[in-house]
Amino acid sequence: MEKFLTIGALVDWCGKVHQESFSKSLRRIIDENIGFIHLLELLEAVNPCGQEYYVHKDIILITYHCQLNLLSFRKKLKLKVGTRMIGLPISVSRSGIWTCDEDDGTLQEKVLEALTLLKGLTVVLNSDLELPGQNRTLSNYVFQNRFTGFDQYLHAMRSSYRRQHRITLHKGKDLSFHKVSPEKFTTDHYQLYQSIMERADYPLEVLSLEFFRSYPAEIFETRDSTGRLLAFIQMRGIGDTLGFMFCGFKREEKNAGSSGDSAILYQNLLLFIIKHGIEQGYKRINLGQTSAETKLKLGCVEEKKYLYARHSNPLIDAVLRRLSGMFSEKGYPTEHRVFKVDDGLDGKGAK
Predict the structure, then answer these.
(1) What is the DSSP secondary-structure string of 176-223?
(2) How far apart are CA 189 and CA 230, in angstroms?
(3) What pLDDT tens digit does each residue of the chain (351 aa) get?
(4) Could you give the CA distance from residue 17 to residue 24 in angstroms, rounded to a whole number?
(5) Distance (Å, rounded) from C-alpha 8 to C-alpha 192?
(6) Same-domain pairing of 207 and 258
(7) What angle do CA 28, 30, 36 make, to 5 degrees?
């Protein structure tokens, strides 16, 4: 297994490999992930956290280090352990296991083989591949766009969902959205992001102000009728997919039912992202993880993500096998048939 300390070094090595039978697969993986490679290059500069990159046969592992609280499932209890995470060093749902689309039947075997070569505690986060134990992490929610306009999207809904979203839009009628260039992302915007991270149940990486000012993404700020800054959203389009990356807003419930209410504000942010994605012609709008009910009622499809942990010490690894179910996400149990025509794109993909 080859190890690299920068993503640039890995890319250069993959470009120079000729003798290996899997070299074409590696170069294809690089080509398919070029947008995320640029993101990783930036994160090395603005969010250094022990990033390491591995190549094993025809798979690439993106890793970083953090202090993981093994008792996160128990409120007010902490047991932090140095951990190698396999995933992107940023809170997005993209897997850190990069492969070609085709599964030759040995993908799980190759991934597990690579994990045995890593020392200490390793946690695979947001895997698309179902690994032993079948433990899940938070699902990802994707809106598969087949509409040419936002009104068409609303009209395609069953009446109860359409009515609910129209009420949300009406309550947020005084909200205004203004595009902000990354270099004009202010400390006021950043404090809204920090507010989100302080409320997060499982915060792994907290990004710096420099990230938001440096990453070439679309940022929209949200203000009320008085001009008060309430929120921001950050989006980035890669290929045919618009990704909702981050947002920021403070929890306010004193104006419940108005645009200042956190729930109404958040729902209006999500509706704005869908409207923007439809108008820009994206085929997929990735709304990320968390808030399962809200996103499924918008017509998103659930994409399951998996979690796997192992330790190079056999005794500790045996304990992890017995405890792994405690870390598994239970999932959202309710199906929502959002659209009038049942084409498998609504709710949890129910037909």
Answers:
(1) EEEEE-GGG--HHHHHHHHHHHHH-SS------HHHHHHS--EEEEEE
(2) 9
(3) 999 999 999 999 988 775 555 678 898 999 999 999 999 999 999 999 999 999 998 899 999 998 876 655 455 556 678 899 999 999 888 999 999 866 656 889 999 999 999 999 999 999 999 888 878 899 999 999 999 999 999 999 999 999 999 999 999 999 999 999 999 999 999 999 999 988 876 666 789 999 999 999 999 999 999 999 999 999 999 999 999 999 999 876 555 455 558 899 999 999 999 999 999 999 999 999 989 999 999 999 999 999 999 999 999 999 888 877 777 788 888 899 999 875 544 444 433
(4) 9
(5) 32
(6) yes
(7) 135
How many domains, in total, are found in the chain?
Answer: 2
Q: Under a CB-based contact definition with an 8 Å cutoff, are residues 122 and 309 in contact?
A: yes
Of the three residues 98, 129, 160, the one that is the final residue of a domain is 129
Sequence-distant (6+) residues with CB within 8 A of 51 are: 5, 6, 7, 40, 43, 44, 62, 63, 64, 89
The reply to whether 114 and 191 lie within a common domain is no
Kindly state whether residues 40 and 123 are assigned to the same domain.
Answer: yes
Among 129, 154, 173, identify where a domain stops: 129
CATH of the domain at 192: 3.40.630.30
Q: What tokens were used for 333? A: 């149990």
Contact 88, 204 (CB under 8 A): no
Supply the range of the domain harboring residue 290.
141-301
Beta bridge partners of 61: 54, 97
- Cβ(1)–Cβ(55) below 8 Å: yes
The answer to whether residues 232 and 172 belong to one domain is yes
Same domain, residue pair 117 and 213 = no
The answer to whether residue 255 sits within a structural domain is yes
CA pair distance 98, 32, nearest whole angstrom: 10
Considering the domain boundaries, does residue 338 fall inside one? Answer: no
Residues 167 and 285 in one domain: yes
Give the whole-angstrom CA distance, residue 281 versus residue 78: 45
